[in-house]
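Q: What would this chain look like folded?
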Amino acid sequence: MNYEELREYCLSMKGTTECFPFDEFNLVFKVQGKMFALLPLDNPDTQIALKCNPERAIALREDYSAITPAYHFNNKHWNSVRVDPAISKDLMCELIQHSYELVVAGLTKKLKEELSKM
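A: My prediction, written as structure tokens:
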């Protein structure tokens, strides 16, 4: 997936907003104000940082050399996923969806109710 496809896919998720610029190098996607994806703008390889269940992250890193660990934002665990031929579009969409769902699961009851009304 290229930069624009990644951006469009993230924005297709219910309640998603983009924060541009988050800083001079990154575009951030949020659901109900909570970050689920960070897309570096200055990287020609187009890497995207996503939240991931730690157990799943370990399994994914064992199976895909294009998935590497990273720590961002107050040392919370994220995965950096390099978009290259090793990562299919379907897998990339699955990883983005997983990140989105983790964030939605952690929302307060009030924020989940607001999201369901959108």
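The beta strands are 16-19, 26-31, 34-40, 47-51, 67-72, 76-82.
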